[in-house]
Every structure is written in structure tokens, then in C-alpha cells.
Amino acid sequence: MKNKRKIVQYFLIFFPKKKERNIFQSLFHQQTLLNQLREVTGTTDVQLLQQALQVSNGDLGEAVAFLTEKNAKVPQQDEATYYQTSQVASDRYISVGSQADTNVIDLTGDDKDDLQRAIALSLEESSRAFRETGITDEEQAISRVLEASIAENKASLKRTHTEVWSDSPNPHDRKRIDNCPVGLKNVGNTCWFSAVIQSLFNLLEFQRLVLNYSPPARVHDLPRNQKEHRNLPFMQELRNLFSLMVGSKRKYVDPSRAVEILKDAFKSSESQQQDVSEFTHKLLDWLEDAFQMKAEEDREGEKPKNPMVELFYGRFLAVGVLEGKKFENTEMFGQYPLQVNGFKDLHECLEAAMIEGEIESLHSAENSARSGQEHWFTELPPVLTFELSRFEFNQALGRPEKIHNKLEFPSMLYMDRYMDRNREVTRIKREEIRRLKEHLTLLQQRLERYLSYGSGPKRFPLADVLQYAMEFASSKPVCTSPVEDIDTSAPPGGTTGQQFIPPWQASGPPTVPPVAQSHRVPLHKPFTQSRLPPDLPMHPAPRHITEEELRVLESCLHRWRSEVENDTRDLQGSITRIHRTVEVMYADKSMMQVPYRLHAVLVHEGQANAGHYWAYIYDPHQRCWMKYNDISVTKSSWEELVRDSFGGYRNASAYCLMYINDKKPFLIEEEFDKETGQILSGMDKLPPDLKQYVKEDNEMFDKEIEEWDVLQARKAQQEKLALATMQVRVVTQRAPQQDPEYMEQPSPTHDSKRLQEDTERAISRATAEQEERSPEALLNAAIKLEYSRLLRLAQDDAAPGIDFRLQHIIVYLIQNQAPKKILERTLLTQFADRNLAFDERCKSIMNVARSKLDLIKPEEVNIDEYEMWHQDYRNFRETTIFMITGLELFQKNNFVEALMYLIYAYQYNKELLLKGLYRGHNEELLGHYRRQCLLKLNEQAAAMFESTEEVEVTIGLGIMNELVVPCIPLLLVHDTERDLLAVEDMRNRWCSYLGQEMEANLQEKLTDFLPKLLDCSTEIKSFHDPPKLPTYSTLELCERFSRTVAALNKRHAEGR
């Protein structure tokens, strides 16, 4: 019974009861022939396939001949269809390592031998498959239908190794914050596991069932069969995993044990893992088996109730007619598969899934030979899951292709129209909608004739055509042709010269102009001259028209245009009313009694052969959507869910929708303590054995944190001791205190010399302007003058290529509104420079400045704050050097070296900008060149891969793995539109190769690489150390900055 139910879940081929076994055999045999015929001919039109079988009386050879002859009559259409199916996403993506297929048989010609060879080849394939696998033709037909209904991840088929998350060595980075949801670690391309498990875990009723599960008493000592050997250990690991997700102190937990049991069971004889849809089916099967064993033990002698069946399984009624014979059959279903292609929203998918074939005979008393069936739900499960089949099988390429079409789905789904109890009402409404849509199609066709008028390739709105005609008729009439009224004897300026006789008007041989003519007369060239002659009308106009003719014509055109506009408005209004009528057809309260709220959306990004999975899950307590992406769990929004799930915008789209009955709140409600009435949360939700399990794990994590803290404290103590030792040595040797390198150098370098000159100029001006000549008075005056100069620089608008902040720290501090005490101490440090001591006047001022520095008390100027501001300035200069170096390398097309400089420049700059708008450089500029550098590297790597040369391919993939892929999370983390589009472009470039023929080793490398590229996580797993920076003086830094900006402006002006 269970296997039969699974087949119904996969295919929706609904089989009647045993007493109608002949109907079952006929349906199944017909389906098998249809699948074989579709595979041989590549025809996907079901009605055409059924017609071929009917004409041939079930003979496969004659059916193929019928189809190939029929297709041969329209070769152009078939050719176009073929190229639409097999063409890659973009013309710029070339074929990689393509080879001709010598086994392809041409069925478009008239050669009957080819036809027989195709049939024989198909039958031989079926026979050989049976000999090798022991699977019958009917089972192979089911397998083919299953293959044609799956759009999930096959990248692990040829993967030689997997990418595993690397944990941060700092346990504080892995510590859970408050009661945030716990993520799941990706232990090797297991994002599919995380997405499904998180969706089920957040169904609190399901969570309670798993946590409180206890194995049957009879199997505590020794399980009886293989199923118990497998399912019971998995249930225990799932309980352990759920308990950690409830009470762990970790930010994310490791699901390796549960995953390993699943992987071992999923592997076939060829060690090939099945897809994520099969995983979901099998997971529920295992849970059903485990709970069934427990239910049978708890209710001896009674029919046991299985909570998994009650939670996830429903029933439907298949009402059908087969060759004039009516039948009804009730079946169970779990996950309900829906086709996506050709539909715009979920209701359209459901309507199509609920009706198969021609169903007119179902509603009529007359006996008819037509066949078809309707499906009506008799009992819906509390958790209603839809599988969205987002792929089609490309017959030409022999592989599945993902369907990226947009499919909308609501947050609240009313299932009343699909219930058996509403069968008659729904049929009436469906018939009314069908009639309205037929009328709508007619109205749209009529409206199109008004909006696209004409018989040529270019069409225009009829109202505009009449308006243009009216404007033409109303133009001022002219009496000459537009060519004859041009004076060809004069230049455009109006001066008259020698009469020019065109060659086609000359009656004799060309005449030579008189020698006495002193100048050459310029000729007007009407087809090349940019300015029109002044007497040429600006618009075409009628040649001859009377006032009476114009009056009659204008009257008619006005009337006709008014009639056309009224007709267009009436048609548009009628179309709008029909749309509204269809939209509200099921809006009455009687058809809104079965509400299902969207609980989770499982998303796949990538192609049919490779991709990444994550889930959006609604949190009813916080009333927001959460995004579960492996170890990352973040707040999201309905808008983000729509963008990632509807499809049509990116390579991401929903492949599974989980709805829950909105009238059964127990599904998502927390459990209450029976004695206190308080909500159970955290460890209180766990049974005793799991409490102990989580407690032990938390103690291990606490110990890891404690050991880390001790280690860090020891390191800090050693660093402090080393620093103290160094300071003692400095005091012993009486070495002068060194200020920051941009303020003072131990020897007169470029920076210190320039700073010394600025200081001396301020002292000289103060000496000239100040009457009192005491050192302290001169110092105060010089500081005021220097501050005024720097203040003007800070307030001036700098020319392009000049950044006054690079010239002096005070400019940086002023622009970022540093405290006054920080500014004063910094200026005092400048005037306390020992290099000033070349004459007595400067030496005395320097000594006063140093004395003032010594007198500053800690409570007056916070030394930590002072150091922080100076460290920020050092970081600003360092960021500038990263930026300049990266931009210089980028302009030299050295993208490999430029990338790291630009990456670190952007990251450091962003940290600076978090503290203030003027702490760093233009973020958009850095973001643009960081993005462009990655795109250039992606382009280079893709070109190397396309070369198919082993060395080039290895280098190209190395560039992607070592440089591009580690940087993608940096573009995703801030979620800016341009960065997202750049990532999408890079991914599309590589995903396009999935639809191309290539050598086996290239295919293996591609399938190994794509999951890394398609990983949507924003977790930065590994990164290169920042490149070492050279030391530049302030003058050199300012000059390089100016040159780089000038080069960028020139590049921008040239459009590069």
C-alpha cells in the first residue's frame, strides 16, 4: 500500500480499485507507450502522441512513422523549435570541447531504415537495461517520468571531493547570540539537508513529535530487521540534532551523523546519490516507519494512528472516464507535484493538475468514448507540501534544463475550490471562468487590431494614425515638389553664383568656365549638407488642397479618431472588468473556509545539474520571515522572498512550498507547562535524556571558550611583558620619544622636512606679527596661524585629484569633527619636533611645546582616544595606498594583483566610513573597480576554460577558486543591486556551460566547481593575507593619488 502511495505521489497516475483491474492495465500500458514514443521522436505534444497511438492501434513502429511524416510537413517549425530548445543562454558563450554524436539517428528524412534503427535502438536500450538492472519496461517508464519531474542538484554525481565549512578558531565567533535560531553546518554539499530539516524543525508540532519519540521497547536490545537497523539510529540522531537546535550555545551545529546515515542509505549500486526531492520523500518514509512501529506497540489490538501520516498525508478522489466507462478511486498523497512551465501562478498549476484529459463526458449523461479525470481533495493534511517541477528534459542535449519562468504564489492559499464537497459549485465557476476567458480572448484580439493597425511589418495605434493624417492635412500646402524648390545655384548662405547645370539636364558637352572667373562657386549638396535651405518646409504637406476639402477631411478624421478612442476605451474597460470578475470569482466567504498559510519556501539557485539550496521560514512570534542558509540565519522580508522564489529574475526560484492549515494553530504553537501554565522554551522543552545530551555538549563548548580565553590572556600578558621590556630599554638608553611617522621621523626625511618647513613658516609669521616675543606667546601665535591655514584647507573645495586630508592629519581631524583637545595635543606634538632645534628661537619654542605636553593630565586628554584618532588616520593613509596601488594595477590590466589591493581597500574603507562620512574614500568608486576586477578575472578564467587545454583550464579554475569565489561573499553580504547583478553575471557565464557538450574530464571539473560558485552564503571561509605595502612620504602619496585620479578621469572620458 505504501509503495503504491509513493507512485501516486511521484506521478499523479491515479489507479482504480482491484475490481477495475482492466482499466488500470490499459492506462498503465498506454502511459508506457506514450513515454517510449516521446523518447524516440522527441515530440512532447500529448494529444499528438495519443493520436499517433490511436491511428497505429498501439503499434510503436507505425506510430513513429506517423509522427515523423507529420513533422516532415512543417520542417521550418520543427527546426525553429529545435534551436529554441538547444540554444545556450547567450551567444557569447561558446561550446566547450564539443564533439559530434555518432549515435544520433536522423528521423526527419524519408529513410525507413533510419526509422527502424531508431525503434530497434530504443528497444535494445530497454532490453539491455532490464538485463543489467532487472527492471521491467513498465518500471523504466516510471523511472523516466520520475526523471522528467525532478529539477534538483546532480552536481555530486561526479564530485571527487566536497567543500566543507571551516570553523573559526575563535569560539566566540561561533557562540549563539541570545535565542537566535541555530544554523546547520554544511558538511559537504549538504545545503539540501539544511533547507529541508530547518523547514520541518520550525513546525513545532513536528519538532515535539521528534523530540519526544522513544523507540519501541522490543527493539532496545536488538532490532529485528534491516529497516529497524537503519531507521531507529537515524531517529536517535535526528532527536539529538533537534535537541541541539533547541538548546545549544553554539551559533550552528554539526549534522554529520544524521547525514551519514542518509547518504549510506541513498547510495545505489553505483554509489550515486539521489536528488533532494527523493531525500524529502525518503525522510518522511523513514519517519513514518519509525512512528508506525511505536504506534503498533502502543495500541495493541486497535488500528494504530501514525502521527506522520496524520500530519503530512491527505486523500483525494479521482473521478474519471476511460473509453466511456466511468470510475472513482480514492488515494492518499503526501507531497503534491505541480508542473511550472506554462503557468503564471500557483492556482493555475493546481487547476491544471486537478484536470487531466477531456472531461466533458464527466458532466453529461451520454456515453462517450472520451477519456479524462478530475481530482478532488476529500481530506487535506495539516501540512500541505507542493513540489514545483522547474525543469524540462532537452531531448537534443539529453539532459534536464531548469525552467526560470516566473511563478507567483500567495502567502495565504484558500483550497476550497479543490475540495470534493465544493465539486458542483467549482464546476459552475470553472465553466463561467472558461466562458469569460474566451470572451476576454476575443476582446483582446479586437483591442490589438486598434493598437497595432496596419498590414506591414510596422504597426501603430489607429488613433495615432488618424492624428498623423490630420496633422498632415492641416499643414500649409506647397505648390512645388520638395526637390524642385531647392535653389541648386546658391550655397546655403544665400549668395548667388554661376548657374549649375546638372549632368542629366546638359544638352551638349561640358563647358569650361571662363578663365577670368576668380573664385570657385560652392555647390549645395542636399543629401550631405547638415543645414536645410530656409525655404524647405520642415514637415511634408499636401501639394494641392482646397478649403472645402480640408474642412470635410478634418471633420471625418476628428469623428473617426473620436470613435476609435471610444472603442478602445470600451474594450479596455471590458477587459478590466472581466479580469476583476475572474479574480473575485472565488472571493466569497463560502469559498474561503479552508485557509492555508505559507510556512516555508525551499529555494534552489543554479541550473538543473548544480546549485545551492536555502529556505525562507515564517516566524509567527516575531511576525517576520527568516532566511536559513546553512550556518547563517538572518531576518528577511516578503520582498526578498519574492525576489528569490518567484523566478524570472535570477537563477534562483522556489522548488518546494510548505503550507499549513491556518485553523490548526497547534502546528506552530509553543507547548505549555501543565502545572505552571508557562510556555516551555529552551532546555525545558527537552526530555531528560536529551537535556543531558545538550548539557554535555554545552559544557564542552564552554570549556573550549574558557581554554581560548586563557590562551588569549596568556598571549596578551606576553605581549604586555614584551612591551614593558622594550619601554625599559628605551628609558635606559634615553632614546627620544618618536611620534607618528607622518608627524615626525627620527631623521630629516621628506615628511619630517616638509612638516618642519610648515612649522618654521608659522613661527616666522608669528614672530613678525607678535609684539610679545616670549617663547610661550610665540608658540600660541604660531599654533593659531598653523591651525588657521589647515582650517582653510579643510573647508576648501578640493580640485579633482587633490585630497587635503593626505597632506596633514589636522585636516583629517577637522573634517571628522575630532574633539578640540585632540586637535590641540596634535598641534603641540608638531611644534615639539626635535628637528626644529637648529636655532635658539625655534629651540625655545620646541621646549615650551614639550613642557606643555608633559603638563597635560590624563583626565584632560584621554590618551586612548588620542591614539584611536591617530590610528584611524594611519588606517586612512594605508587604505589610500591600497586603493592607489590597486587602481594603478587595474589600469595596467594586471587584475590578479589588483584584486587583493582593491578588496582590502574596500573593506578597510568601509570600516572607516562606519565611523563617519569623511573618514574614508568614495565607497562607490572602490566598489565599482572591485566589481570590475572580479568580472575581468571571471572573463579571463572562462576564456581559459573554453580553450579546453588542460593547463589553461587548470589555471582558469585556479583563478576562480583562489581569487573570485572567496570574494563573492563580500559582494553578497551588503546586497547592493550592482554587486548582485555582477555575481549573477559571473554565475550565468559558468552555468551556461551545463547545456553544452564537453569532454568527461571538463564536465567533472565543472560539476566540482559550480557548487562553490553558486554557494549563496555570506560566510567568509578563507581569505588571502593583505599584500605588503611600501612606505610613501606625504608628498609622494599626494602625487600618486593625483596621477591615479587623473588617469581614471581620462579613462572615463574615453568611455573605457
UniProtKB/TrEMBL annotation:
Keywords: Coiled coil, Cytoplasm, Hydrolase, Isopeptide bond, Nucleus, Phosphoprotein, Protease, Repeat, Thiol protease, Ubl conjugation, Ubl conjugation pathway. It comes from the Eukaryota. This is Ubiquitin carboxyl-terminal hydrolase 25. Its EC number is 3.4.19.12. Residues 750-772 have a biased composition (Basic and acidic residues). The keyword Zinc-finger does not apply. Residues 733-772 are annotated as: Disordered. Belongs to the peptidase C19 family. One of its GO terms (biological process) is proteolysis. The lineage of its organism: Eukaryota, Metazoa, Chordata, Craniata, Vertebrata. One of its GO terms (molecular function) is cysteine-type deubiquitinase activity. The keyword Electron transport does not apply. Pfam families: UBA_8, UCH, USP_UIM_N. GO terms for cellular component: cytosol; nucleus. It is found in: Cytoplasm; Nucleus. It catalyses: Thiol-dependent hydrolysis of ester, thioester, amide, peptide and isopeptide bonds formed by the C-terminal Gly of ubiquitin (a 76-residue protein attached to proteins as an intracellular targeting signal). Residues 182-662 form the USP domain. Homotetramer, inhibited form. Homodimer, active form. Interacts with ACTA1 (via its C-terminus); the interaction occurs for all isoforms but is strongest for isoform USP25m in muscle differentiating cells. Interacts (isoform USP25m only) with MYBPC1; the interaction prevents proteasomal degradation of MYBPC1. Interacts (isoform USP25m only) with FLNC (via filament repeats 17-18, 20-21 and 24). Interacts with GAPDH. Interacts with SUMO3; the interaction sumoylates efficiently USP25. Interacts with SUMO2; the interaction sumoylates efficiently USP25.
